[in-house]
């Protein structure tokens, strides 16, 4: 039986029961790093000091979690106005609770200078101009995620899966709308550029009217979404799983549901 419980207005009691069951669990954290060239659209994200630094954001986050400093860039990732990466909070939480972690490269342009699992997945293209991935690569991402999810879990523990992908809220929005879910999404920016995101999504969805899960991801998604969906599908059969994220993980759950995950 799949053990992940979605906390929502419709399942508050189930969420409380799930939370209480974790009281004595051993936690493990997994950071999945990835990239979409959608992040390079001017004004769509501030997950990096400028366009040239965006591709270093995810590997730098991974290096910071491991070493307390970054190797691929001289400082931690910051927004143009000086806001530091949320990886600061993640590292404090992991260190304080003594939670072990590992990193998976699922389509990052730059590999982190640490030991990590490498999926050999390609990064996602700019969805306003191109198909994000081939359908074959989406299938490959799901299958590799399934292998990792099955390999790393132990019964009666809890796997926490997080992500780092600049521009990921926009590709997540495209996937959710591609599945017919009418929604809006969060942002790394104080003033969410929702109109720009919607414009990008409309361009992407105009290319294809297919509702097949792999087609939607291939057209308008990114490598992280199918990879984590694959992880979820096998890991949740072995242990408890928490998806550490908002908008992007909603897209993961959407494709998971369409692929048969309860």
How is the secondary structure organized here?
Blueprint: H1 12-21, E1 26-33, H2 54-67, H3 87-97, E2 101-105, E3 117-118, H4 135-152, E4 157-164, H5 168-178, H6 194-205, H7 213-220, H8 224-235, E5 240-244, H9 247-258
Helix pairs in contact: 2-3, 4-7, 4-8, 5-6, 5-9, 8-9
Describe this structure in words.
The protein is globular, with a radius of gyration of 17 Å. The N terminus is likely disordered. It has 262 residues and is α/β, with parallel strands linked by helices.
Distance N to C terminus: 9 Å
- How would the global form be characterised? globular
Tally of individual helices: 9
Task: Catalogue the unreliable spans.
Answer: 1-8
Write down the secondary-structure element order: HEHHEEHEHHHHEH
Question: What is the residue-mean pLDDT, rounded to a whole number?
Answer: 89
What is the rounded Rg?
17 Å
DSSP summary, beta strand count? 5
Q: Supply the helix-strand structural class.
A: alpha/beta
The largest beta-sheet arranges its strands as: 3-2-1-4-5
Strand content: 5-15%
Biggest sheet record: 5 strands, parallel
Specify the helix fraction band. 40-55%
């Amino acid at each position: 039986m799949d053990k992940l419980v979605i906390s929502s207005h419709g399942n508050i009691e189930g969420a409380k029961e799930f939370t209480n069951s974790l009281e004595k669990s051993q936690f493990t954290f997994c950071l999945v790093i990835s990239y979409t060239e959608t992040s390079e659209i001017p004004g769509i994200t501030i997950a990096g000091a400028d366009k040239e630094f965006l591709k270093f954001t995810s590997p730098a986050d991974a290096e910071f979690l491991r070493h307390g400093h970054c190797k691929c860039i001289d400082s931690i990732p910051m927004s143009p106005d000086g806001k530091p990466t949320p990886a600061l909070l993640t590292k404090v939480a992991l260190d304080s609770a003594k939670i072990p972690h590992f990193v998976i490269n699922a389509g990052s342009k730059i590999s982190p200078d640490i030991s990590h699992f490498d999926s050999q997945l390609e990064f996602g293209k700019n969805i306003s101009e191109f198909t994000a991935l081939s359908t074959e690569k989406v299938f490959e991402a799901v299958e590799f995620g399934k292998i990792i999810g099955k390999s790393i879990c132990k019964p009666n523990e809890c796997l926490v899966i997080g992500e780092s992908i600049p521009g990921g809220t926009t590709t997540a929005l495209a996937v959710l709308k591609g599945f017919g879910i009418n929604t809006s999404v969060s942002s790394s920016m104080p003033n969410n550029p929702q109109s720009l995101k919607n414009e990008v999504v409309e361009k992407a969805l105009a290319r294809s009217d297919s509702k097949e899960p792999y087609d939607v991801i291939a057209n308008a998604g990114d490598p992280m979404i199918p990879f984590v969906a694959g992880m979820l599908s096998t890991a949740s059969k072995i242990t408890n799983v928490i998806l550490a994220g908002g908008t992007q993980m909603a897209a993961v759950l959407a494709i998971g549901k369409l692929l048969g995950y309860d």
